[in-house]
Amino acid sequence: MRGIRYSLLTVTAAAAFLLMPSPKSDAQVSIGVNIGPAPSCPYGYYDYAPYDCAPDGYYGPEWFVGGHFVGAGQWFHGPANFHGSVNNHFDPQHGYKGAKPGPGPEQPHHAAFKGNEARDGRGHVTGKK
Predict the structure, then answer these.
(1) Fewest CB within a 10 Å sphere: which of 12, 58, 72, 78?
(2) pTM of the entire predicted model
(3) pLDDT tens across 72-83, in order?
(4) What's the rounded Cα separation, in Å, for the pair 116 and 118?
(5) Residue 77: which H helix or E strand, with range?
(6) What is the torsional sign of CA 13, 18, 24, 28?
C-alpha cells in the first residue's frame, strides 16, 4: 500500500510539473551581418577570424598603399584582380607561435620580406612563390 501511494504521488507531481504553463517569451529574430570596423593593426591583420594583428613580414609591400594596409577578408578594399605575396611562415595556421603586434600606429617596413604564397584580398591562395 505504501508503494502504491508513493508511486501515485510521484506520478501526480510529474504530471503537475509537465502541465504547468510555460512563461511567455517574445522571440526576437534578427538577420544581418555587422562586421564593424576593420582592425587597426600596424602590419595588417590575418584574413580569417578572429582577425588578429599579423606581424611585420607576413604581408608583402604590395598590400600597402601610402603606408596603409589595403585590407584583407571582409574589409578588403583593393582592386578586384588583386594578388599579393604573403609569408605564411608567420601564419598561426601554419604553426607560427611568435609575437604579434597589437593595434598601434607603427608603420610597416618590409626590408627582409620573403613571400612564399600568393593570395587575393579575400584570403584565397592563388599560388606559391
Answers:
(1) 12
(2) 0.67
(3) 999 998 898 999
(4) 7
(5) none
(6) positive
